[in-house]
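Worked example 3 (structure in, sequence out).
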């Protein structure tokens, strides 16, 4: 089994946040986070709703799901399959596959036109939906690199394309109880 600290997700998240110099996407960080999330049984996620909150451990949810698949396909007992999964550590290639499937799920679900609710966190309740932006023409100034002055305007046609819109009003659970 892997060293317990190897899959400490909270520690990894703190390191990534502390070392971030730009906010561009990082496939390497995504894979490391997924791998740690699916292995760290001490990490839990608290999901908030208007009626309260619940916690779950993503590693436990994942390992139970895979144990069910193992049990169903091999006809071994659910308990034996669970014991196998308890001794399993998700590797880099499985974490990469889960990242791919997660992104495919979001893109596929958003393509239906329905919102995707990400679930409430302590301070947010984010939803996403896909929207089509019609073709448009934008004007922009042409700047002379030598003088830094404008040399007039140019136009550029922006093709129609899809965008993801996120929304997040202040969650109801942040408001104090009214008496």
């Amino acid at each position: 089994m892997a060293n317990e600290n190897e899959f400490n997700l909270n520690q990894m998240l703190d390191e990534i946040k502390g070392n971030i110099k730009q906010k561009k996407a990082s496939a390497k960080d995504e894979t490391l986070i997924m791998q740690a999330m699916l292995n760290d049984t001490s990490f839990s996620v608290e999901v908030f709703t208007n009626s309260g909150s619940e916690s779950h451990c993503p590693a436990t949810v994942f390992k139970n799901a895979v144990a069910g698949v193992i049990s169903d396909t091999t006809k071994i007992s659910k308990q034996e399959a669970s014991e196998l999964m308890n001794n399993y550590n998700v590797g880099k290639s499985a974490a990469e596959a889960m990242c791919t499937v997660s992104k495919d799920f979001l893109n596929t679900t958003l393509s239906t036109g329905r919102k995707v609710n990400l679930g409430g966190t302590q301070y947010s309740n984010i939803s996403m939906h896909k929207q089509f932006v019609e073709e448009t023409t934008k004007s922009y100034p042409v700047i002379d690199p030598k003088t830094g002055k404008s040399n007039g305007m140019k136009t550029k046609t922006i093709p129609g394309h899809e965008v993801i819109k996120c929304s997040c009003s202040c969650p109801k659970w942040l408001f104090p109880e009214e008496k």
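Notes: DSSP finds five helices and seven strands in the chain. The longest strand covers residues 125-133.
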